[in-house]
């Protein structure tokens, strides 16, 4: 067993859940993906199989669940489709300054109409870039029951755990 970063064999296998903070969302945990502790790197190291797919799936998970899009989520979704703050602003017909505020001030997030609009323009872009064809169906499912879920959109995400065995995300809202 070797460290995939530095090649050292002074590694210890960790099998607990891995805190996947480098994805850009501070509440995402991975279960069932082997990771190591390297004594030389003095850090946990992990090799995530098909990481791009996982990140795309995480984006789809966010837009199809009725929890609030806050600073982290907006930045995550925007970067995932490769938009600048200016480009996202253009799609929503608002200025870059507002996007910047949404991404940096938890209290200044979008209201529910803008939250929903972000989901729609993002889904369109994702389909245009040919990510997931089922995504629009899933988003429509969310929007159809909007009268029931609007109150949930006010909730924040406490934790998301990805289980590599089932390939599913699990959500805990606060
Ligand atoms: Zn190492």
Question: Cofactors and ligands present?
Answer: zinc ion
Structural class: alpha+beta
* CA-atom Rg in angstroms: 18 Å
Largest sheet data: 4 strands, mixed
Strand order of the largest sheet: 2-3-6-7
* Count, helices: 7
**N-to-C order of helices and strands:** EEEEEHHHHHHHEE
Indicate the mean pLDDT: 89
Number of strands: 7
Helix content: 40-55%
Task: Provide a short characterization of the protein structure.
The protein has 174 residues and is of the alpha+beta class.
Task: Explain what this protein looks like in three dimensions.
The structure is a single chain. The chain has 174 residues and is α+β, with helices and mostly antiparallel strands. The protein has a domain at 51-157. It contains 7 helices and 7 strands, in the order E-E-E-E-E-H-H-H-H-H-H-H-E-E. The strands form 2 sheets. A 4-stranded mixed β-sheet has the order 2-3-6-7, with no helix packed on it. Helix 1 (51-63) packs across helix 2, helix 2 (71-80) packs across helix 4 (96-104) and helix 3 packs across helix 4 (96-104). The longest helix has 17 residues, at 112-128. 20% of the residues are buried. Zinc ion (ZN) binds next to loops.
List the helices and strands and how they pair.
Elements lengths: L10 E4 L3 E2 L8 E4 L3 E4 L4 E4 L4 H13 L7 H10 L4 H8 L3 H9 L7 H17 L6 H10 L1 H4 L7 E7 L4 E6 L1
Parallel strand pairs: 3-6
Antiparallel strand pairs: 1-4, 2-3, 4-5, 6-7
The chain binds zinc ion.
